[in-house]
Amino acid sequence: MELISPLIENYIAQFTSPEPIELAEVNKDTAAKHPLAHMISGHVQGQFLSMICAMLKPKYVLEIGTFTGYSALCMQRTLPIDGMIHTIEIRPEDADTAAENFSKLNANKQITLHVGNAKEIINQLPYQWDLVFIDADKTGYIDYYEMVVPLLAKDGIIIADNVLFHGQVLEEPLKGKNAKAVHAFNQHVQEDPRTEQVMLSIRDGLTIIKKK
What we know:
This protein has about 210 residues and is α/β, with parallel strands linked by helices. The protein has a single domain, classed as Rossmann fold (3-Layer(aba) Sandwich), CATH 3.40.50. The protein contains 8 helices and 7 strands, in the order αααβαβαβαβαβαββ. Strand 1, helix 4 and strand 2 form a beta-alpha-beta unit. The chain is globular and about 45 Å long. The model has no long low-confidence stretch (mean pLDDT about 95).
């Protein structure tokens, strides 16, 4: 389902700050080589993540779902000098690609890559998170959310990606495990008395969540 006109998307991209050359190379390389290249955050969403980091000035960032490293690199661009991103990727081949991209862009001092199951790794990390970006398996979203809400710093926020899931969350009846999982996550967050949220129609949908 086409939620936003390509003309509008192109207009938005035109009036968003240009994609840095080094990030454009990661984007282009992913598009050329990865069969699931549509999963990359891309120019506009990447700039949004950079802006969020510039505003929050987070010291500790958790990313659940590294893919080829593009979104982590977008956040690292505006990270404070003492800031650190911990990013988790379950697929070894994607983790290898991300590691190469981090190395090429000299981002290793601020990005730590963990390979494995996020549900096992998150509780091993001894931090309170100023920013959490969830962009992993959709059936795990509620579990990830429940794991990180107690670990948020005082003014920390969570950003969840793909909350519109290609428009499939609008279908009646819902079809497919991912659309059902995303819709269940959206309801779960809405009904959580601990937090408040706003859903944005950027790319495939983003929800920004903070503790009350």
